[in-house]
Amino acid sequence: MQLPLEKFLTPVTAAALALLCAGALAQGATDYPNRAVKIIVPFSAGGGTDLMARNIAQKLNDAWKQPVVVENRTGAGGIIGADAVAKAPADGYTYLMGTTTTAINATLVTKPPYDMKRDLQPVTVLGLYALVAVVPAVSPARSLQDLVVLSRGKPLSAGSGGNGTPQHLLLEMFNRAAATNILHVPYKGGGPALVGLLGGQIDIVFSLSAECLPHVKSGKLRALAVTSESRYALLPDVPTMAEAGIAGVVATGWSGLMVPSGTPKDIVAKINAELTSVMATPEMKTRLSDQGFLPVTMSVAESEKFVSADVDRWGKVIRDGGIKSE
């Protein structure tokens, strides 16, 4: 029979051991990171989530003098990548590039392999973004009302970054609000969905601004409306959904960093502090703004509150609309 270790320790020995362990933990936090860090993006390369991950990976690499590697782990509407992080060692060396989809999946997915609130720790929210209803420049729909009329005469399809993504839920919200029946076509990320749109395989995408903005600026895509409550600064001439005649379709997305729950608090705080410093630089603010993000900085506590509120907000949308994962 194996006896508990404490039975063999004198009080002095036990105290010394406790101090030794505490010192080792402190030293580990001081030296963090001392090896490569991995950022898992739960969507394919080329989309807005991937873009944000690569922006911060480069800056963390420079600051920490350690490799910061981005790995795209796609599938199941972001569940596969998030699950990989939720089950990773809680040592601060595996990050998740969390998004609005992470919050949505907490309610939408009936039996997820992890519990988002229990298994994932928000570190910081990095950027907010509008979503934009975009169609190919050759589309006969020059306004949102044109699109509604067009849908009455022929079947239309809309791409998304996968089941349960904001693009998918916004389509469901739009179909209800406009009494349309546009077919949902899931892709493995927002980037591939836009490729399908540009190639004429689908008719519309409620796209992340960071993904569609270059194509709108180049004239390849036409922006019909934004889903934010007010007009989007980088597309000031594009109306909101309400201004375009479709009320009740409002959403703003986010990207942020998460780690496995149980990651030491001092390491979480150190990651947050480094990213706060990175996001405050004029270079990063300009880069992210040009890419379609609204850069933000949040403490760990503020990020926890923000993500929790987003889970609750999307949970209400899903329940009220009777939306099911496909």
Summed up:
The chain has 326 residues and is an alpha/beta fold. The protein has two domains: 36-128 and 253-321, D-Maltodextrin-Binding Protein, domain 2, CATH 3.40.190.150; 130-226, Periplasmic binding protein-like II (D-Maltodextrin-Binding Protein, domain 2), CATH 3.40.190.10.
- Major sheet: size, sense and barrel closure? 10 strands, mixed
Integer count of domains: 2
What is the CATH top level name of the largest domain? Alpha Beta
β-sheet strand percentage: 15-25%
Can you give the mean pLDDT?
89
Q: What is the CATH superfamily label of the largest domain?
A: Bordetella uptake gene, domain 1
Rg of Cα set: 22 Å
Helix-strand sequence: HEHEHEHHEHEHEHEHEEHHEH
**What is the terminal-to-terminal distance?**
52 Å
**What is the count of β-strands?**
10
Q: Shape, please?
A: globular
Which structural class should the secondary elements be placed in?
alpha/beta
According to CATH, what is the topology of the largest domain?
A: D-Maltodextrin-Binding Protein, domain 2
User: Which regions contain 5 or more consecutive residues with pLDDT less than 50?
Assistant: 1-9, 20-27
- Count of discrete alpha- or pi-helical segments spanning 4 or more residues: 12
Percent in helix = 40-55%
- The CATH architecture of the largest domain would be 3-Layer(aba) Sandwich
